[in-house]
Amino acid sequence: TGTGTGLGRPRSLPALPFVGSLLQLAGHPQLHLRLWRLQGHYGSLYALWMGSHYVVVVNSYRHAREVLLKKGKDFAGRPRTVTTDLLSRGGKDIAFASYGPLWKFQRKLVHTALSMFGEGSLALERIICREAASLCETLGAAQDTALDMAPELTRAVTNVVCSLCFNSSYRRGDPEFEAMLEYSQGIVDTVAKESLVDIFPWLQIFPNKDLALLKKCLQVRDQLLQQKFTEHKEAFSGDTVKDLMDALLQVRLSAENSSPPVPGLELTDDHLLMTVGDIFGAGVETTTTVLKWAVLYLLHYPESLLPSQVQRKIQEEMDQKIGLVRHPHLSDRPLLPYLEATISEVLRIRPVSPLLIPHVSLADTSIGEYSIPKGARVIINLWSVHHDEKEWDKPEEFNPGRFLDEQGQHIHSPSPSYLPFGAGIRVCLGKVLAKMELFLFLAWVLQRFTLECPEDQPLPSLEGKFGVVLQVQKFQVKARLRDAWRAAS
Ligand code: HEM
Ligand code: PLO
To answer: Average pLDDT of the chain?
Structure first.
């Protein structure tokens, strides 16, 4: 719609042949911060070149809304890159597949399967509570010693997704789980790192350390996925559906039975495998990361004078509304607005996916008063959207209260400039699941324990590490059993 209307292009960073605007970006590992700061010079919407790719960077809510919602279909494509092609076998998954009929079908399938299985079903709540209980047991056993909570949180979250996808789970120290931890870290460290291979695809023929690591990790992942897939195919009878994998097999079967396959619209084994791989990968890495950020912020605002004693407030609310005799349920969510507000604030201040996944324009179109050519990559900088001083009061301050109404009884966002899960056609598929998990895990842990920074250690850094998710640096925690809980039990 922007063509022929005389609209101009966004202002562009200077670019050199071959490398593009790389010089302005090189040496800045925190890409989201670099792109945020460049607004000072170029305005909130600007363009740059990554090698030969034209990239438009969006830093304001107004433009993000246009890209994701108003013109969602114009911008529903995904770029193909060397790393994501390896991860998804050439875009046979959902997250890294471009817009098309097969992608639409896959997305709908998973959406149906997730709502059938998980969301709104008591079975899923029971699974999450089982894992929360096991997490609390581990914390209790390690009481008063400095503990790296990361592997424990990862195992809890992994077991939820594992139950959902494969109807299986891992025990502590399970070698298969340890292998998974290792390969997943390798993938997170290398995928979409804007590594040189994505800018100069021909570099693939040269040995490249990151690429070799990614390939090795993917081999381990694929073997694991393949094994689960084979087991399910062999056991599948068509009438009992135990998990997401079965649900996908069943839908494929009934699609095949009802109509002859349309060429180009067949769900191959690769499609099913990569789809489950997405749910598994996204299910583990995102939720675990948010839990780690939540714990980290609780350590930073424990008993300090300002802005609030977040953890104590959550616990007071729980003591009043739930008490210490029973464990928290999902149906308690409306009773615990302060906990919900805390989760919302964590998702704002440290967005898991600070640049979303890049979008691609599928037609000549426009954003605001600028024309955007077909094939442009569009990066939505969620960090900028969540830290916009025109929208948020003291954006770098962690303040759950900003999400509460005056009576502190209901949560609402004070600004529309808030998109932790994206929006529109490409909105996150796991939003409901993720929110269930975040609520239950935090509620269970904080009902019993107070989390503290070990005395002999400095407060861990709040600086994230940019990657395919915004990672938390390693830190240790002391979980102290609450006196109130001890007295009540
Ligand atoms: C996509 C956030 C958890 C599955 C996304 C996107 C964001 C996001 C920002 C990209 C949207 C875009 O590119 O415009 C989050 C956050 C989570 C979370 C903050 C946790 C708090 C999950 C979980 C699952 C999941 C648990 C799995 C069940 C997906 C998938 C996509 C996606 C499959 C790709 C959608 C598409 O490209 O069509 N998520 N996510 N996410 N998420 Fe999540
Ligand atoms: C995480 C590592 C896994 O081994 C593979 C994987 C699959 C899907 C990816 C996920 C990784 C990272 C987070 C992503 C998710 C799809 C949607 C999600 C990118 C790479 C987000 C936050 O957008």
So the answer is: 89
**pLDDT for 11-40, tens place per residue?**
998 877 766 676 667 666 788 999 999 999
DSSP letter assigned to residue 477:
B
Q: Are strands 11-12 and 45-50 parallel, antiparallel or unpaired?
A: parallel
**What six digits make up the tokens of 212?**
């070799």
Residue nearest to atom 3 of ligand 2 (CA): 281
Burial call 321-339: b when 16+ CB within 10 Å, e when fewer: ebebeebbebebbebbbbb
Q: Which ligand is nearest to the CA of 356?
A: 1
Q: How many residues does the chain have?
A: 489
Q: How far apart are CA 103 and CA 82, in angstroms?
A: 19
Task: Quote ipTM for the complex.
Answer: 0.99
> Which pair of structure tokens corresponds to residue 232?
């399910």
Q: For residues 166 and 426, what is the distance between their CA atoms, to the nearest angstrom?
A: 25
Q: Which two tokens stand for residue 327?
A: 């464990």
Report which ligand 1 atom has the smallest distance to the Cα of 357.
Answer: 13
CA 298 – ligand 2 centroid, Å: 26
The position carrying tokens 């930073």 is: 300
Distance 354 CA to ligand 2 centre (A): 13
For residue 131, the one-letter residue type is E
Q: Are strands 11-12 and 478-481 parallel, antiparallel or unpaired?
A: unpaired
Q: Roughly what angle, to the nearest 10 degrees, separates helices 244-258 and 101-117?
A: 130
The verdict on the CB of residue 184 being under 6 Å from ligand 2 is yes
Structure tokens at 255: 């699609």
- How far the first Cα of the chain sits from its last, in Å, is 66
Q: Which atom in ligand 2 lies closest to the alpha carbon of residue 422? A: 23
Q: Identify the helix (H) or strand (E) that includes residue 380.
A: strand 377-380
Of 275, 356, 239, nearest to 105 by C-alpha is 275
As a whole number of angstroms, the distance between CA 362 and CA 377 comes to 10
The pTM of the full predicted model, rounded to 2 decimals, is 0.95
Contacts of 219 (CB under 8 A, 6+ apart): none
Q: Closest ligand to 382 CA?
A: 1
